Amino acid sequence: MESDSSRDTYGHYLQAFRLKAALSVEAVSKQTKIATHCLNAMEADDHAQLPPRPYVKSFIRSYAKAVGANADVALNLYLTDLERQAMTRQQRLKRQAKLSILRRTLLTIGIITSILLIVRYTDLFLDPEPPPDPALPQEDRLPPPATPAAQTDADPLMPVMVSEKLRLKVVAVEQTWLKVIVDGQNTRSYDLKPEERLELEGTRNFNLMIGNATGLQIFLNERPVKIYGSSGQVVSLKIP
C-alpha cells in the first residue's frame, strides 16, 4: 500500500483504493452514510463543496476505513492540500495587492504630471510678463539695445598705404556729372559720357559727389573703390 500513499492529493488516494476494492460511490455512501455529492467532492479535491474541516476529517476516516486505505495518510494529504491552497491564495492576494499599489502609484504620478503641465502652460500663455518696477533706480534698468548705425552710401575703403601721391582713375560707364575736391582745396566739375576717363592726383584725399551712382568705376592707386547706390542716385564719397 505504500505505493498508493505517494499520490499527491487525498481525493486521488481514496479514489484509488475505492477502485481497487471495486466499490462504487453509491456503495461507499451506503456504508459510510456520507452523501454521494460529498464523496465525489472529496475525490475531486473540491473543498468548496465540502462542509467545515472537522466534518471532512471524520468523512476521510470513514471513507478510508470503508475502502481499506490508511486514514492517517489520507488525513496528512488532506492537511497538506489545505496548506498548499492557503499558500497559493496568499500569494495571489499579495500579487493583487502589489498590482493595486502599482496602479494607484501610476495613477497618482499621472495626475501630478497633468497638474504640473496645466500650471506650466497656464503660466506661459495667460500670465503676461510683468512691467519693470518703477521703484528701481535708473542705473539698475537695462538700457535699450543700440540701433545699428545706418550704412552710408560709400563703403569704407580698406586702409591704403599713403605714398607721396594718390592717383585716382575714373571711368564713365553711364552718363553722369561729377564734382571732385582734391586735398580739400581744388574743386573740379565734370560732365562725363560713357567710356570717358579721368586721372587725378592728390596727396591727402578726394571728396567726390556723383550724380549717378552706377555711372562710374573708380580706382585709387589701381585698387577698385566700391560705390553704393542705384541708377540715378546722387552719392558722396571721401577717398581714402
Automatic annotation (TrEMBL):
Domain Cytoskeleton protein RodZ-like C-terminal, residue spans: 170-236
Keyword vocabulary terms for this entry: Membrane, Transmembrane, Transmembrane helix
Region spans: Disordered: 129-153
TM segment ranges: 101-121
GO molecular function: DNA binding
UniProt-listed Gene3D superfamilies: lambda repressor-like DNA-binding domains (1.10.260.40)
Domain of life per record: Bacteria
Presence of keyword Manganese: no
Pfam families attached to this UniProt entry: HTH_25, RodZ_C
Keyword Transmembrane included in the entry's annotation: yes
Record-linked PANTHER family: CYTOSKELETON PROTEIN RODZ, PTHR34475
Protein name per Swiss-Prot or TrEMBL: Cytoskeleton protein RodZ-like C-terminal domain-containing protein
Species for this entry: Desulfosarcina ovata subsp. ovata
Source lineage: Bacteria, Pseudomonadati, Thermodesulfobacteriota, Desulfobacteria, Desulfobacterales
